[in-house]
Amino acid sequence: VIFGIDRLVGKLVEGRLGVLNQGLRASLMTGVAATLGDVVAYHSNKAEIQQRLWDAINQHAPGYGTRAKPIDVIAHSLGGVVSFDAMVAPANGIPLYVDSFVSFGSQPAFFEIIDPRRSSATYSTGNPIRLPETIKKWFNLWDVVDIIALNVGTVFRLREGSQPEEITVED
Fold first, then answer.
1. What span, in angstroms and rounded, lies between the C-alpha atoms of 50 and 83?
2. How far apart are CA 53 and CA 58, in angstroms?
């Protein structure tokens, strides 16, 4: 009898937990897959995606984004990585010059640590990477609970040696 009750309770719990597990997976996986899919797509097609950025600049502000006419950039999430890469490691060899860069919820520091953008500069603890003159000012908005949108001031220094300005945003 006890064995039978044990099996019945096990089946009920297993069934309910299985439904809960599947529900959680369904609600989370779409977002996770979309995010990781975007990251993989960008890292597989950097030149094409950075070219889209240049195409937009050339269409709406021809001649800008150059040393003589730097632009201001506001970018969120992976857009911050695309913009950052266009400034420091351009896929087409032509760097994007930016006067003020505002990133929020973005991952340049995270990707720099796991996949360095320039072979001449590698981050190590206590030795931040000096950025090229293509970024004059950088304001980074970040949330401490975002596990991959790291504090960029730990990993990078602007050309003249100062840290990018960190602005902590709380939920």
1. 8
2. 9
Q: Which residues contact 83 (CB under 8 A, 6 or more apart)?
A: 53, 73, 75, 96, 98, 101, 103
Q: What is the mean pLDDT for each group of 10 consecutive residues in the chain (171 residues)?
A: 68 64 62 63 87 96 97 94 95 95 91 78 83 96 80 90 91 70
Q: Is 132 exposed, middle or buried (0-12, 13-18, 19+ CB in 10 A)?
A: middle
Distance CA 171, CA 141 (A): 12
**154, amino acid identity:** T
Global pTM value = 0.77
Give the angle 25-109-143 at the CA atoms, nearest 5°: 60
Provide the 3-class DSSP secondary structure of residue 18.
Answer: helix
* Whole-angstrom distance, CA of residue 88 vs CA of residue 156: 12
* Integer Cα distance of 94 and 54 in angstroms: 10
Helix extents (H) in the chain: 2-44, 46-60, 78-88, 108-114
